Amino acid sequence: MRLWKVLTVSVFVCAMVLQGWGASLASAGESAEEPIIRIGVVPAVESLSIGGQGNFDIIDKQTGEVLFTGANAQSVVALSGTSTVQSFFRLQVAFTTSDVYVADWVRRATEEGYATYVENYNNGYRLYLGEFAPDASFAERVAFKNEVVAKGLAANDAFWKVVTTAEGENRLTISMDGVVKETTNAVRVIAASEMVTINGKAYRGVAEVGFNSSGTLAGINELSIEQYLYGVVPRELPPVPYGEVEAQKAQAIAARTYALSNLGKRSADGYDLLPTTSDQVYGGFTAEHPISNEAVDGTKGIVATYDGKLITAVFHSTSGGFTASNEDVWNSEATPYLRATHVAQKGNSLKYVPALEIYKKTGNSESLRKVKNGDFEADWSRYYRWHFEWTAEEISDVIGSYFNTDVGRVLEINVTERSRSGRAAVIEFVTENGTFYEYKDRIRWALQYINANGSPAVLLSTLFIIEPMKDQETGETIGYKVDGGGWGHGVGMSQVGAVGMAEKGYTYDVILKHFYTGIDLETRY
């Protein structure tokens, strides 16, 4: 019997995991009916509103009882009964799929007197230490992290997250037009128009409010896969300015494949996927656009497969000229269809990325410090090439904050290993108070830039060169400069690269087979 407590975390952004779910879909071949998907559009709250456009019923999901009827109205659903909702800072220290590792880690941490928490996630476990009030000081949390790192219970890349839980009997109240009803079951909104609202936002399909694994409420949108894609494709590849239909079709197939291969991924919380970059960005009905809807309709049921199984169809904004193999970015086994490949460049569609020296600042590279919102330019991405500079004080603060220690002056920054695509694989920070290392895509978090609001932000990619800036008179290092290309992890399909290929006349099947090596395209329904 497992003795550790299982919790759900309310906020987390992570890299896409190279592991498919929905194994039955991956191996079942043709499917007669279009699948249904559930999106946790509001994943963890104490209350929210639901309603419908036109006439609708609010029903008890378990009993089928109609609790309310309405038209163009909203109701409020809230936690009630004896539930106690609490939010704490907790330190996520690891992810593992090993029960043996979890049991040993829990034993060691408990022996040291620390609170331990374990969350079921993606066929594995997230491990947490500590419990700090939301107003706990940063210094207090840093001291705790340094302590558990020193004891071998966490690594330097452990990070803090706010975890919301509810304990006690799970009940909810539904309020509408002054009438209040209570149930222990999830409730659903069924509208004749098939248009519902969750927290005032419009969605196709059905709205549902249920309990997540932490005991708080989740607002869930249940709809068909194709309707879901209507709200995904325009958010992942905006039709304005990227209106090339073949690129939109490629995006639709990649998004459909990702969705089908990840059905059930977050079933512990009552839904399949989140509407964020943790999975795929989903904007509901208001995000839809005629061009992206056309692309979804024109590729209905088409998915990408390798050896008959759905692929993990990861994608990113901009490659910078060369995509990456998955094992060069994440700690995962090499995936045969996620191989590094060249990407079409402006005016020269199928040439390889030039030497790294091309990333040094030119007249058309964009200073990241001036960028506020990350808007795209109409002609490919403004981040195809970019540049940034840190003062000596800024680079010390950035690296010191990441490693949770005072590093003093930064003496050298060296990329000691690169992948075949040219991306930094190992970076070395030589400082007055020690030498620190980071690896693969985590380098982007270790080497953050300072945006226009004065806040640190994750570096756009690992495809860069970094050099010291010297005082011309004394030769002293006064800062560092980085010149790079691309935006995102670099694995799989480059979205603006797909647009560039479409502009050159390539069709969606050629585009997808360029970015995903050796795949097939199949119609599943």
UniProtKB/TrEMBL annotation:
Keyword Magnesium carried by entry: no
Extent of the signal sequence: 1-28
Any single Pfam family the record assigns to this protein: SpoIID
Listed InterPro entries: Bact_Sporulation_Assoc, SpoIID/LytB, SpoIID/LytB_N
Keywords: Signal
Segments forming domain Sporulation stage II protein D amidase enhancer LytB N-terminal: 215-306
Keyword Signal: yes
UniProt-recorded name of the protein: SpoIID/LytB domain-containing protein
